[in-house]
Design a protein that fits this description.
It is built from 14 helices and 21 strands. The strands form six sheets. Strands 2-1-3-4-5-6 form a six-stranded parallel β-sheet, sandwiched between helices. Helix 9 runs parallel beside helix 10 and helix 13 runs parallel beside helix 14. The chain binds 5'-deoxyadenosine and iron/sulfur cluster. The site of iron/sulfur cluster (SF4) has 10 residues, from helix 7.
Length: 469
């Protein structure tokens, strides 16, 4: 069983199945990409494993958005180097690949810094993964970071699609990639390239396939998802609102979400979709990054704080029960105490159900990194602490406001105890339910009885459902 074949296209000879361990960093787009890479590798005879020591191939799907995320990859590669050496001593090989945005941004440099790496592959070239691995097997060190024009996942053969196992009741679906916005802090336009929308027919096809495999909730993904544009079956131009209408008609799909959006691309059609489609969850991630007009301008966000607040008003007018989440950066170059207070004020005014906040991290090659007036780490840390405390309070208040209300919950998995199940609220909170409420995949209506630190408890969830006397 330990025999390993060098021929990447025919791994099954001799009965030796190969194992791939994929570690995913960063955003949901990477989660989606890792799943598709795993599917593509299944065709080459690779089984996924959760145990890195067992892997014949280790793939790190990396994130470059902040320095911390990128540095984590190098420390992980340090550990993998030791593992690889141990395996080599046992006469077994372990190939190591770096995928994702660090691969795209740093390319060849990774090979110089981490000699254990055999393959560097950027997000635009994942369809070349099997071929790249064959070259690695032949002894080459491979760097694939070109921009390809083809759809990187168009190459999944149909026969293989059938073998793809159902992956639970929720799934991501990439509809758009890349970004043309060039916010001055952000590496995405450089690592993920220009904005590209997947054609409507392909998206509908993938959504149908997901629904057929038991998926009930689909989250449309894109770095700038609401900039998605395409044509309907009759050749008329449609935006994301139109796409959501089209997907809402697919049998089996009970919930739709999309992320991440830019305020500038929230058009009337999309806002109206929140009014007209019950299947579209009333929860919107709409990052604003800062509440200061001066900082927003320096960030090249191309809107001011008042415009964002007006937009929120229009969205709330369309869908009264919508809850909002956002992203914030503190300590962007030039951010004064007064600018930061503007951010605090904006957060207070909007009232978020949840939000992510980060210290500004200068990224090589972005305009922000070259700006004057960088803010000290200590000041960034102080501001982050205050902002996060405010956001935490809002999140707690939002969860508390749900106690006593009834809501639809999609059951996702068994709970920690036999008498419990775990589902998702419309606002993405985990909800603990009684096992008598239904089965995995069911949408059930429950009353919220209490809040836990990171989840909600439905009425009756804490009592064992079948008592034996
Ligand atoms: N520093 C800190 N945070 C950043 N983000 C993006 N780039 C940076 C950076 N250089 C944050 C933004 C974005 C989220 C995904 O990550 O808030 O919305
Ligand atoms: Fe980055 Fe701005 Fe594009 Fe979002 S909109 S991916 S923050 S450049």
């Amino acid at each position: 069983m330990t025999e390993r074949r060098e021929d990447a296209s025919n791994p099954d000879v001799g009965g030796a199945r190969r194992r791939v361990y994929i570690k995913t960093y960063g955003c949901q787009m990477n989660v989606y990409d890792s799943q598709r890479m795993s599917d593509a590798l299944a065709k080459d005879g690779y089984e996924p494993t959760e145990v890195i020591e067992d892997a014949d191939l280790v793939l790190l799907n990396t994130c470059h958005i902040r320095e911390k995320a990128a540095e984590k990859v190098y420390s992980e590669l340090g550990r993998i180097r030791l593992l690889k050496a141990e395996r080599a001593e046992q006469g077994r090989e372990m190939r190591v690949g770096v995928a994702g945005c660090v691969a795209q941004a740093e390319g060849q440099e990774i090979l110089a810094r981490a000699p254990a790496v055999d393959l560097v592959i950027g997000p635009q070239t994942y369809h070349r993964l099997p071929e790249a691995l064959a070259r690695v097997a032949a002894g080459e060190k491979v760097v694939e970071t070109d921009y390809a024009v083809e759809d990187k996942f168009d190459h999944l053969p149909t026969a293989e699609e059938k073998r793809i196992r159902a992956r639970g009741v929720t799934a991501f679906l990439t509809v758009q990639e890349g970004c043309d916005k060039f916010c001055t802090f952000c590496v995405v336009p450089y690592t993920r390239g220009a904005e590209v929308s997947r054609p409507l027919a392909r998206i509908v096809e993938e959504a149908r396939r997901l629904a057929a495999s038991g998926v009930r909730e689909v989250t449309l993904l894109g770095q700038n998802v609401n900039a998605w544009s395409g044509e309907d079956e009759a050749g008329r131009p449609v935006g994301l609102g139109g796409l959501l209408h089209r997907l809402a008609r697919i049998e089996g799909i009970a919930r739709l979400r999309y992320t991440t959006s830019h305020p500038r691309d929230m058009d009337d059609e999309l806002i109206a979709a929140h009014r007209d489609l019950d299947i579209l969850m009333p929860y919107l991630h709409l990052p604003v990054q800062s509440g200061s007009d001066k900082v927003l301008k320096a960030m090249n966000r191309r809107h001011d704080a008042a415009e964002y607040l007006r937009l929120i008003e229009r969205i709330r007018a369309a869908r009264g029960d919508i809850a909002l989440s956002g992203d914030f950066i503190v300590g962007f170059p030039g951010e004064s105490d007064a600018d930061f207070e503007d951010t605090m004020r904006l957060v207070s005014e909007v009232g978020y159900a949840s939000a992510f906040s980060f210290k500004y991290s200068p990224r090589p090659g972005t305009p922000g990194a070259a700006m004057d007036d960088h803010v000290s780490e200590a000041v960034k840390a102080g501001r982050l602490e205050r902002l996060q405390a405010l956001i935490r309070d809002q999140q707690t208040a939002f969860a508390a406001s749900l106690v006593g209300t009834t809501m639809d919950v999609l059951i996702e998995k068994p709970g920690r105890y036999a008498h419990q199940l775990v589902g998702r609220s419309p606002y993405l909170q985990p909800v603990v339910l009684s096992s008598e409420s239904g089965a995995v995949g069911d949408m059930v209506r429950v009353e919220i009885a209490a809040t836990l630190p990171n989840s909600l408890m439905a009425q009756g969830a804490d009592a064992p459902s079948r008592r034996t006397a």
